[in-house]
Amino acid sequence: MDWIRGHTIGHGSSAAVSAAKSRLSGEVFAVKSVELSKSQLLQKEQKILSELSSPYIVSYKGYDVTKEKDKLMFNLMMEYMPDGTLSDEIRKQGGRINEPLIGYYTKQVVQGLEYLHSRGIAHCDIKGQNILLSKTGANIADFGCSRWVDPADRDGGAEPIGGTPMFMAPEVARGEEQGCPADIWGLGCTIIEMATGGSPWTNVTSASSLLYKIAFSGQSPEIPKFLSLQARDFLNKCLRRDSKERWTAKQLLKHPFLEESNLNSTSTNQNFVTSSPTSILDQDIWNSVETMDSTILQEVSSPLQRLRDLSSNSGELNWRWNDDQMWITVRSSNNE
To answer: Where is the Protein kinase domain (predicted)?
Structure first.
């Protein structure tokens, strides 16, 4: 497939993301690319995304290998979501989103999670930056950290731990396990992000101290008191430290907070002017951590050192669009 690459619009957990346009149809889509020799994670993401079809998951468009500047590139093509990320929406709303709109987006994310989990897939990096918006609502995106939770579906044995420190569940921060319950914890943290415009954890200054707090303090993120009783109860079901006690996505869909969220997004999309997000938004603890070799987590003896190693690599996700940028023609390598 011949297509035209636009400028970089962001970085996912495993590769750069660019705008792209079909030379034949003119269709605009997003393409996630990395050098073929370094594309193991992106090929795994492609395999997962190609098996998914849901109105709550970003659509898969295909993949190819191209030759650009004498380098072979592996490209994953996806639906382009014009309205940016949920984190962008929080900023547009003045730093907070009102509760009806929180319920609207949350229900769509939970529907997406229920679909994923029913197919034995854990996303492993649920956060506002990985929820993309369009006129039809919220779509889960960036499957760079995702995994099959059934050991029979795994390639090459145990999966490495990955994700974003600020949204990690306690069992993940301890390096014990990362499955579907961890997505529910990340959902709870994302709701707090929507409600407050700030971080689910406060008074932390580094990724290592944050992960240590998540793993061993016995605390959970503080649930905003200004939310309704139903919203607070919903969060309580998501943010239970024991992963076995957290509600599943299927259970959460029956919670009263979501049962009343059959709202039209335009009717709830009202400005909620409050204080701007906290400065912690700009710190590394909000950024995505590349998946690591699992042997690293097994070899270190100190829990704190393990957490420091886990948080050593981070990248920033920032989806942006600029029509003035130059397009570059790209051709499939088999045409070269």
So the answer is: 3-258
